[in-house]
Design goal:
By secondary structure, the protein is an alpha+beta fold. 28% of the residues lie in helices and 26% in strands. The relative contact order is 0.15.
Amino acid sequence: MIEVENLCKSFIRTVKDDTDKKKQFKKFKTKKEEFLAVNNVSFKAEKGEIVGILGPNGAGKTTLLRMLGGILTPTSGNIKIAGNDYLIDKNIVKKEIGYLSGNTKLYNRISPRELLTIFGNLYEMSKENIEKSIEEISEIMNMGEFIDNRIENLSTGQTQRTSIARCLIHSPQIYIFDEPTLGLD
């Protein structure tokens, strides 16, 4: 279902260049250096498996998940999802994924129902399937009391449930959740 081979992601960061000790009290020069946020990661996750990514802050967990979700492009390595190569079949692969970021922002001036309808349309669902899916998700996620309220008026927990619901609307084969319990009540 998910196959990751030798995945790497590098970034360039600016750091103080303190190699010249004579300039200790003057303005520091900076230099750019490359660092690997994800270094040669490989794994497989079969259908029905649940995989957790653990590590300390700064270990590259979110970067890895963003590459799996199609938000970041790997520096090197390969990702296959449901047998499709991510770089070749990106649009096909994205329809198979429900991706939740740790810092998802939602449109504040619409309701969860409107948001879910928009995403259902983006995933090319029929109107009937969208309505049916919204009702099922609303019941499962206990969203009935706020599904028609504006998102800007929701609690943090209600907003997080709405974010999770957005990932479920199209019944994807794969769920990639980064800190899904953050802010849940």
